[in-house]
Amino acid sequence: MYFDAANELGSVLAKRSISLVYGGSNIGLMGAVAKAVHKHGGSVIGVIPQTIHARGIAYDTADELIITRDLRERKGVMEARADAFVTLAGGFGTLEEVVEVITLKQLQTHTKPIILLNTGGFYDPLITLFEHFYVQRFAKPDQRQLYYVAPDVGSAFAYLDGYAPPQIENKWF
Fold first, then answer.
1. C-alpha distances in angstroms, 148 versus 124, 143, 166?
2. pTM assigned to the model
3. Domains plus CATH for the chain?
């Protein structure tokens, strides 16, 4: 199920001539996305920290492979090069990265679309936590507009097609 979504995402990116900017590995869901992008004639830009590159899991056939000092530099390069953020199912690193780009958008340092690809309801517990933030007044309800929860790849691209940066009020109460 997760790999099916990853392959579909890569295929659609390539067919729409959208370059993939991602973490640069050849494994996992994002490795599958990169391979699907290439399989369908698209462009792949990998951004990988030296320590992970040294482990031999870089997607060396990327059209451009940027090797950074560390994860912090990698995130900066990816944030600067990406036009949107689509988050597939993942672990702690994925969670940390998506929460950071949501926070940066909340602080109005960017207005790029952020999508949680909620394959099989993977992100339902996180959305429940976010709803808890709103109920407990640790976030304002209009900040739901900072991200979009897509049930599938088609919905993600429909959102991107109609995307206009939301007007979010100041984060502080």
1. 12, 11, 11
2. 0.95
3. 1-82 (3.40.50.450), 84-154 (3.40.50.450)
